[in-house]
Amino acid sequence: MHPYRTHTCAQLSSADVGETVRLSGWIHRKRDHGGVLFVDLRDHYGITQIVADSDSPALPVLEGLRVESVVTIEGEVKARVAETVNPNLATGSIEVFARGVTVQSAAEELPMPVADEQPYPEDIRLKYRFLDLRRETLHRNIMTRVAVIADMRARMTAAGFNEFSTPILTASSPEGARDFLVPSRIHAGKFYALPQAPQQYKQLLMVAGFDRYFQIAPCFRDEDPRADRLPGEFYQLDLEMSFVTQEEVWETMEPVIQGTFAAFAGDKKVTPAGQFPRIPYDEAMLKYGSDKPDLRNPLVIADVSHHFAQSGFGLFEKIVGSGGVVRAIPAPATHEKSRKFFDDMNEWARREGYAGLGYVTRKGGEFGGPIAKNHGPERMAALYAELGLGENDGLFFAAGKKADAAKLAGAARIRVGEELGLIDENAFALCWIVDFPFYEWNEDEKKVDFSHNPFSMPQGGIAALEGQDPLTIKAYQYDLVCNGYEIASGSIRNHKPEIMVKAFEIVGLSQADVEQRFGGMYRAFHYGAPPHGGMAAGVDRIVMLLCGAKNLREITLFPMNQRAEDLLMGAPSPAEPRQLRELGLRVVEPPAKPAG
Predict the structure, then answer these.
(1) CA-based angle 268:269:274, to the nearest 5?
(2) At what angle do helices 402-419 and 339-351 cross, to 10 degrees?
(3) From CA 443, how far away is CA 163, in angstroms rounded?
(4) I need a surface site. Which of 36, 353, 386, 515 has the fewest CB within 10 A?
(5) Largest CA distance in the chain
(6) Which residues contact 576 (CB under 8 A, 6 or more apart)?
């Protein structure tokens, strides 16, 4: 007999009754029924109920152990009586009567519970992550992550892609976040950077003639954490293709992404491959107030500025007259809502830092509220007719500068959808956002900057760069969005050195700067570069959505906390003086903050 186990804790069934078996695992729960002890024994695979009575030498040993101790049980499989069968447990029709027990590792008093998954302070969960990972939900989420990655790999291979590994120690790259720098011992005073993405390497692979590349790539960005972005590292399904248009990238990747979602979505609907809506960026910002729209929400924002160019409602007329806009967010079937619902939405907008959220009520065709009173019933009826609203539908308004009104309208659309229960929680709604602006205005530095990926191909090529206002140029850039989250981003790349130089000149970098910063790619483009494009899908966010988790820490093995600290391993930590000397480095302490 195997020294530790003949079966896992999920294998035994009625067919094994009468067998002598050996199981190993953790004591999950104990229940003392006066001379009879019931133990739930847990391993990676499941749980088996162990019974030890007064005739068993295992009883005093098990009674003296704390939960989460590791034991090996030898005993006989017996059928449970009908009234004690547990249909929710794979092994619920049997139990094992313990005849012997070996203590492999006794547990001390636990700093946090494992069996009961009540909320617990994050610092304790992260410091004792090895205990946290024993919890059923987190353990299941991690195994879902493993399965999702395996599924992605299989689908990419089936689609003709080859997996390549690109370097981790590399040069700094302009991906929009801070680099993690690694000092070089051999080249004193010089630094490697951990890759924010394998962008340049995968393009170089296309130049090298490998045609279809992918990898599950670790990426490193020194940026502040948030719920859908962990500090430090993240993983993406990274890919690149040669001789493709952006439409071919979409057609190739929709079956992969949709297939993975469908494989793990359970009963939830998934947008069919080949039917992902393709929404231009400008349209997305107008209709949804966001370039990451949640299409499970049926509400659509409309620009109604022209209705208030001449209006009895002076505030909106003044905003429109000074170049601002008025956006309308429908609130369908709100005739039974009290005035408080609308006032609460207005107060919510103020708490979010806006001047307020105007509204109109309507019940049985009668308009209510100051805006309707001043704008007039005929004008309101014309506005409602244009929007296709009914006699019992309310309406909210976001007014102001274009960007501010779009942001408020987008946030209000989400909140109204949630408050009215309009969001389809039983769906994964996928769409492409396309035609992103190539450049944007950097208000802090008062200059033009790249808005997305600087290595993208501008629509119109060199002619657009030389003849158009930079802020009007679109790029062959696209994002894949699911349920309000950006889950992938990509583009058709620029593969012409003269376009590369001109694109960077517009943001203030010279040809010499380009050659210095991106010399590998710049040189490569002079020796025959194919048209190519690709994308990168966020593995972490996809798994988070599929698991129904609200935070990336719930699908990650060993995450850092909100201060970018690894409480389990004690990172970051000071370097030894010897290490600093070898690297030619000296730590400069930040200036002390003034008292008070």
Answers:
(1) 145
(2) 130
(3) 41
(4) 353
(5) 92
(6) none
Q: Note the pLDDT of residue 592.
A: 75
The label of the residue with tokens 């699908």 reads 555
Q: Pick the closest to residue 534 from 29, 282, 197, 274 (CA basis).
A: 197
Q: Is the Cβ–Cβ distance between 212 and 228 less than 8 Å?
A: no
State residue 546 phi and psi, 5-degree precision.
-70, -30
Q: Which residues pair with 192 in a beta bridge?
A: 182
Rounded distance between C-alpha atoms, residue 48 and residue 67, angstroms: 15
Torsion of CA 546, 552, 558, 559, to 10 degrees: 170
The pTM for the full model equals 0.93
Residue-wise pLDDT for 546-586, tens only, equals 999 999 999 999 999 988 999 999 999 999 999 999 999 99
Q: Over range 319-348, report the average pLDDT.
A: 95
Mean per-residue pLDDT, 222-244: 87
Distance of alpha carbon 170 from alpha carbon 149, whole angstroms: 25
Are 161 and 537 within 8 A, CB to CB?
A: no
In angstroms, how far is CA 269 from the centroid of its own chain? 19
CB count within 10 Å of CB 581 equals 11
Cβ-contact 513, 463 below 8 angstroms: no
| Cα–Cα distances in angstroms (integers) from residue 8 to residues 66, 292, 430, 557, in the given order | 21, 44, 39, 23
| 317, 322, 328, 334: CA torsion to nearest 10 | -40
Cα separation, 152 vs 542, whole angstroms? 11
In the numeric block, which tokens belong to residue 474? Answer: 């679109």
Q: Angle, nearest 10°, between helix axes 136-158 and 539-547? A: 130
Torsion of CA 133, 134, 138, 141, to 10 degrees: 100
Please determine, for residue 281, whether its predicted confidence score (pLDDT) is greater than 60: yes
Non-local CB neighbours of 123 within 8 Å, separated by 6+ positions? 561, 567
* Close Cβ partners of 466 (under 8 Å, ≥ 6 residues apart): 502
Task: List the Cα angle 26/30/34 in 5-degree steps.
Answer: 145
CA dihedral 397, 403, 406, 411 (to 10 degrees): -100
Question: Helix 136-158 to helix 246-264 angle, to the nearest 10 degrees?
Answer: 140
pLDDT at 155: 98
Per-residue tokens: 348: 């919510």
Mean pLDDT across 56-64: 96
Q: How far apart are CA 451 and CA 511, in angstroms?
A: 20
Report the mean per-residue pLDDT for the chain.
95
Are 396 and 354 in contact, with CB atoms under 8 Å apart? no
Q: Residues 475, 452: contact at Cβ < 8 Å?
A: yes
- Burial class, 187, CB count within 10 angstroms (exposed 0-12 / middle 13-18 / buried 19+): exposed
Rounded CA gap, 291 and 314, in Å? 31
Q: Which two tokens stand for residue 272?
A: 């069919």
Helix (H, G, I), strand (E, B) or coil at 149: helix
CA separation for the pair 487, 481 (Å, rounded): 6
Residue 91: pLDDT band (50, 70, 90) is very high
- Output DSSP code: residue 105: E
Distance of alpha carbon 103 from alpha carbon 71, whole angstroms: 5
d(CA 425, CA 269): 10
Please answer whether residues 487 and 253 qualify as being in contact, where contact means their C-beta atoms are separated by less than 8 angstroms: no
- Measured CA to CA, the distance from residue 155 to residue 163 in angstroms comes to 12
Token pair, residue 509, equals 């970098």
